[in-house]
Amino acid sequence: MKTFCLYFIHFEVRKKNTMPPKPWKVLSSRINECFRIFNLRTDHALSPRTQHAHDFYILESTDWVNVIPITSLGEIVLVRQYRHGTRDVTLEIPGGIVEPQDSPEDAARRELIEETGFKEREMVFLGSVNPNPAFLTNRCYTYVARNVVRVKTQEQDEKEDIEVEVMPLEEIPRLIREGEITHALVLAAFYRFYMEYLPGLSGDAAP
User: Model pTM?
Assistant: First the structure.
């Protein structure tokens, strides 16, 4: 009887909310400020459900990329760097912005060698995510750099302070579990790596 009641309540809720959400109509849009890495934009948009208009504050940003570099020995190349947003040092994978002249894969190759000095034998696309669709316009693309080797020294710019760390692949789940790796986009990248990339390697000896 309890199961039936719960099902009935669930059915009634779905019945009352039969109209799926729709995109809001943008009535006006203006750029407030322009910065090097993003533009601040205000949209005035109309709700199709209530017919009321509201302001939305949007960050127009270029796309981002991150890379999971793995050596032939099954080690992951990580970067430990200072992040001023949290004013803390974080453990991450290499990444950065996709420049206008670059494809995401071009950016992945550039960021990998600049931040770590490592170069890949092959770059494999894992997928992309919306970093935060509530107020960001961009996407973040993730790649696996296979069979990386160090070929040169790092090329850090004036705002970077990066240390390279090479760790066994089996250490990654512990680093995530213990809060050593906390960057949301890095966690999303490793989720895809473990759920989609590694299972597809059955019978493939190369990382």
Answer: 0.87
